[in-house]
Write a structure and sequence with these properties.
Blueprint: E1 3-5, E2 10-18, H1 25-35, E3 45-49, E4 52-65, E5 71-78, H2 86-93, E6 98-104, H3 110-126, E7 136-141, H4 151-158, E8 165-167, H5 176-195, H6 205-212
Parallel strand pairs: 2-5, 2-6, 6-7, 7-8
Antiparallel strand pairs: 1-2, 3-4, 4-5
Helix pairs in contact: 5-6
Length: about 220
């Protein structure tokens, strides 16, 4: 359930970048931070715990305001991919509203991708969320490297899945905003069904996406 404070008329949306170690989750987050307009983001922060770290930043630190006056804020996180840090991953996933699953396109990483995806499904259920209903985008990163699966090979495995599949080179900034935009569309649908963004707050999907990316809806 979205973090919606009806009395304060405020909505906080939490989004998480998840995936195997070294797939490019941190690069996605830092590149997204680089690409956003200055007024749309707070400082990149690092939460250091024993032998691991979680990166996060407040997107829309001051928020955007829907026509109804609803204040919307976003928080973005990435989690450590190493197997040893499962407890941290579960903690970060708690109460998340959406996930970008960052897979590694290299041929020799297929097993790691599959194991991490299974781990995501398991942890989502463990923190009390419905995996089938969770807004998600699957991003195959590192398209700039030489020995990668072709797009047709990837789609042969993933096209039957209900989630959008995106292709990216986060290091070069390609596909980062596009993947995030697709996630925002799915997150809107989910939150709209929970609290009525369109009906109660006069905010449609296009306005929401454009507002978050700094292309529309007034910023406070």
């Amino acid at each position: 359930m979205a973090d919606f404070d009806e009395d304060a008329n405020r909505l906080v949306i939490k989004l998480v970048f998840y995936g195997p170690a070294l797939s490019g989750k941190t690069t996605n987050l830092t590149r997204l931070h680089d690409l956003l307009q200055p007024e749309l983001k707070g400082e990149m922060m690092v939460l250091e715990t024993k032998n691991d770290r979680t990166l996060f930043f407040d997107m829309l630190p001051l928020g955007i305001t829907a026509p109804s006056g609803l204040l919307i804020k976003l928080k973005l996180f990435t989690v450590p991919g190493q197997v040893a840090h499962d407890s941290t991953r579960k903690a970060v996933l708690s109460r998340t509203d959406g996930v970008v699953f960052v897979a590694d396109s290299q041929r020799n990483q297929s097993i790691n991708n599959a194991e991490s995806f299974e781990n995501l499904a398991d942890n989502v259920n463990r923190v009390g969320l419905d995996f089938e209903a969770l807004p998600m985008v699957v991003q195959f990163n590192k398209r700039d490297l030489p020995d990668v699966l072709t797009e047709s090979e990837i789609m042969a495995r993933w096209s039957k899945m209900p989630w959008p599949v995106m292709f990216a080179s986060a290091l070069e900034g390609q596909g980062v905003i596009e993947s995030f935009r697709e996630l925002l569309k799915a997150v809107y649908q989910s939150i709209d069904s929970q609290i009525g963004l369109q009906k109660s707050h006069s905010l449609n999907k296009e306005q929401f996406v454009l507002g978050v990316l700094g292309e529309g809806v007034g910023h406070e």
